[in-house]
C-alpha cells in the first residue's frame, strides 16, 4: 500500500514536474516538498486543497482508494449558455456579411443595367 507521501510523488510525476516545479505550484519550498514525499513532515490541508484544485482526487490522496484523477467536469448550464451565445454571435456575423454581400450585388447589378441600357 502506498503512503500519502508516495501518492504526492505520483501526482507530481503525473504532471511531469520536478520537485522544484511542483513546490512552486504548491507555494512551498522544494526541500519541504521533499519532506512531504518522504513523510518527514505532515502535509498541511492547504497543500491537499491545492492538489485537489489541480484535479487530484482527495479520496485517493488521503486513502489510496479510487482513481488518482478526478473525472472531467460535466457540462454546466452556464457552459451551454456560453456555447449558444457564441453560436448566435457567429450566425449574426454571417447574416450581416450575407446582407452586405446582397447589397453589393444589387449595386453592381444596377450599375450593369445603367451601362447596358443607356
UniProtKB/TrEMBL annotation:
SUPFAM superfamilies for the chain: lambda repressor-like DNA-binding domains
UniProt-listed SMART domains: HTH_XRE
CDD domains hit by this protein: HTH_XRE
Domain HTH cro/C1-type span(s) in chain numbering: 8-61
Gene Ontology molecular functions: DNA binding
Protein name in the entry: Helix-turn-helix transcriptional regulator
Amino acid at each position: 500500500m502506498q503512503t500519502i507521501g508516495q501518492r504526492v510523488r505520483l501526482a507530481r510525476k503525473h504532471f511531469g514536474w520536478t520537485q522544484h516545479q511542483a513546490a512552486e505550484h504548491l507555494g512551498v519550498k522544494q526541500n519541504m516538498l521533499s519532506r512531504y514525499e518522504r513523510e518527514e513532515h505532515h502535509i498541511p490541508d492547504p497543500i491537499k486543497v491545492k492538489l485537489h484544485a489541480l484535479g487530484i482526487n482527495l479520496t485517493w490522496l488521503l486513502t489510496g482508494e479510487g482513481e488518482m484523477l478526478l473525472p472531467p467536469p460535466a457540462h454546466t448550464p452556464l457552459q451551454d449558455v456560453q456555447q449558444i451565445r457564441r453560436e448566435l454571435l457567429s450566425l449574426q456575423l454571417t447574416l450581416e456579411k450575407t446582407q452586405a454581400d446582397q447589397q453589393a450585388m444589387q449595386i453592381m447589378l444596377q450599375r450593369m443595367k445603367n451601362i447596358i441600357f443607356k
